[in-house]
Amino acid sequence: xxxxxxxxxxxxxxxxxxxxxxxxxxxxxxxxxxxxxxxxxxxxxxxxxxxxxxxxxxxxxxxxxxxxxxxxxxxxxxxxxxxxxxxxxxxxxxxxxxxxxxxxxxxxxxxxxxxxxxxxxxxxxxxxxxxxxxxxxxxxxxxxxxxxxxxxxxxxxxxxxxxxxxxxxxxxxxxxxxxxxxxxxxxxxxxxxxxxxxxxxxxxxxxxxxxxxxxxxxxxxxxxxxxxxxxxxxxxxxxxxxxxxxxxxxxxxxxxxxxxxxxxxxxxxxxxxxxxxxxxxxxxxxxxxxxxxxxxxxxxxxxxxxxxxxxxxxxxxxxxxxxxxxxxxxxxxxxxxxxxxxxxxxxxxxxxxxxxxxxxxxxxxxxxxxxxxxxxxxxxxxxxxxxxxxxxxxxxxxxxxxxxxxxxxxxxxxxxxxxxxxxxxxxxxxxxxxxxxxxxxxxxxxxxxxxxxxxxxxxxxxxxxxxxxxxxxxxxxxxxxxxxx
Length: 485
Hints:
Blueprint: H1 6-11, E1 15-23, E2 27-35, H2 38-51, E3 57-64, E4 69-74, H3 78-87, E5 94-100, E6 107-110, H4 113-122, H5 124-138, E7 142-147, E8 150-154, H6 164-174, E9 176-177, H7 200-215, E10 220-224, E11 227-233, E12 237-243, H8 251-262, H9 266-280, E13 281-282, E14 284-288, H10 292-360, H11 370-412, H12 418-484
Parallel strand pairs: 6-7, 9-10
Antiparallel strand pairs: 1-2, 2-5, 3-4, 3-5, 7-8, 10-11, 11-12, 13-14
Helix pairs in contact: 4-5, 7-8, 8-9, 9-10, 10-11, 11-12
C-alpha cells in the first residue's frame, strides 16, 4: 500500500514542478515552482489548512524574482494568512513550505512516507536519537500518517509499559550497546498491531524493531550513521557489520527478546539464546533460520530437565545450611542470655546483702559507706567488663555466621528463584537484628548500672551530710552547756 505526500496531492491539480523535498523526524520541507491564480491560491491555502492537524505548524514563504522580495504566512495566524492572500501577485511562483511537526497526546505526524523512510535509512543514528528524545519526554510515541482521505495511526505496544527504565537497565547490564547513552529505546517502541504486508512504514518500523531486539540480545552492538555492527559470543564468536538498507526484518529476534526478558533467569536464558543463534545463523548473524526460536525453547526445556536434580540438591544444601545457621544463632543467644542472667543475679545478690546487713546492724545509720560504695563500683565494673567481653564474643560469632551465609548465597544467587531469594534475605535481616539487639542490651545494662551506683552515691552523700549536721549540732549544744556552767 504505497502512501503519497498529502501536500503534493493538493498541488497536483496545478501546473507545478518539485524543486526540493525532505521529511525528517520533526520537520518537513517542501520547495516547488507553482503557476497559480489568486483565486486558486485562496482555495489551495484553505485546503492545506484543513488537512493539517492542529498540533503542527506550517510556515509558507513565496519569492518573486521579478519583484525581488518575498511574502509568507503562518498556519496558526489567521491575520498573516489574509495579509498573504492580499499581497500575493502572479509573479510569486516559488513556494517554500516549512512544516514543524509537534508531538501532542503522544502523536507524531508523517506526511511523506517515502521521504521519511529515506531520511531514516541514511541518517539512522540521528533518527533514533530524535526518536529516543521524544520517547523519554512522552513515555511513548504514536505515529499518524496524514492523508486526504483520513489518517492511519500506529500505536506501539510500549504504551502499556510502565517500567521502561527497568528494561533499559537490563539491556545495558547484560549487553554492551555503544550508543546506549543517546539511544534509550526498546523493541516495543516500534512494535505495532497494524497488519498491512505492503505497508512501507510498517516495514521500516519492523526493521528498527529487529535492530533493537538484536541490541538487547547480542554481546556488543554499535550504530554508526547507517551502519549496524554486532558481536555474538556463543558456540562461536561472530562479528558482522551491515547497512541498514540490507538488513532483513525477522520477527524471531523480537520473539527471542520477549522470551528472554519477560520471565525467568535473564542471564541464563540469554546465554542459551546466544549459543543457539550462533549455530542457526545463515550467512551472517543478522539472518537466522526460521526454526531458531522453536529450537531455543526445546533446548531450554532439556536444559531445565537436566538441571532439576542439581537444583534440588543445591536447594537442599542451602536449607540445611540455613537450619544449622539458625540453630547456632539460637545457641549463641541462649548462652548470652544465661551469662547475662547469672551476672545480673550476682549483682542483685551483692546489693541485697549489703542492704540487709546494714538494716540488721545496730547504730549504723549509713548503709552505703565509702568502703561499701567503692566495693559496689568495683563489683559493677567487673560485671560490666565481663558483659562487654561476652557481648563482643557474641557479636563476632554472629558476624562470622553472617559472612559464611552471605558467601553461600552469593555462590548460588544465579540459580535461586527470585521469591526464594527474598526468603533467604530475611535470614540475613535476622543477623542484623541480633547484632543490633546485642548493642542495645549492652547499652541498656550499662545505663542501669551507672544509674544505680549514682543513686547509691547520692544517698551516701545525703546521709553523710545529715550525720555531719547532727555532730555539729551536738557540739554547739555542749559548748552552750559548758558556757552556762
